[in-house]
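=== RUN LOG ===
request id: a7f3
mode: sequence -> structure
chains: 1
length: 283
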Amino acid sequence: MADGRSQVKRRAGARLWLSATWLGLLVLGAVFAPLIAPQDPLAQDLFGARLPPFWEAGADAAFPLGSDSLGRDVLSRIIHGARIALGVALIAGTLTCLIGSGLGLIAGYFRGWPDMVISRLVDIWMAFPPVLFAILLIAVLGTGLSSIIIAIVVIDWTRFARVIRAEAMSQGAMDYVASAQVAGRKRFSILLAEILPNVLPTIVVLLTLEMGIAVIVEAILSFVNLSISTDQPTWGSMIAEGRLSIHQAWWVLVFPLVTLFLTVLSFSQLGEGLKDHFDPVLR
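=== RESULT ===
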């Protein structure tokens, strides 16, 4: 039994460190993009169009991962695209977490009419297909980062609300909550000081998963040209462009697609690693 737990902890630690390392490198690249990127991501050079990656014949050292059909550096566009992807993930994920977790805590602990109202609202919200709902919101609000963030928050707060509501209900039935009530503590004080710290690990795990979902949503909207201006480099727009020239320049599609896959996988594995790390049985 002890050997099994230690193996689970080692696997969880490996997932945690690998995913955190990739995301850390991505954050550094996004923050220092103007200094790290080898080229201007918007600079076009038709004479240097569709240059292959550095290991293939005919490559140019100034374009390590090749260039697209307009001669723009693929690596520079990936690095600058990380700024948009991570910015959306951070802002949208945090706002979604605050709204959904707050409503979930209120519904799960106070019960009664707050729980009934919030639960019915969650049921109604989740009846809409999320992708179609996002496209509809973008069509109403217009394109832009703020519209994407609003769409993600409006759609995904229900995920936090449902899970945190269940956690708050479970914690509210514990003896330590009953002891605090007997001691005369106010209910709102008990919610913040007793229940919230015990629900916080679940909130952190959900937050990392939501950031990965936000990256996917931004990429999907960029792919269908409903994100920001087409001049700005985004992973979704790069994938859409690379799809059209896959037979002539495979690297234009593959590199941003691999970057997107690794980023979403890292957010997911970071959440799983944190979940195992905070698991009281494993600890």
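=== NOTES ===
The CA atoms of residues 171 and 195 lie 6 Å apart.
The radius of gyration is 23 Å.
=== END ===
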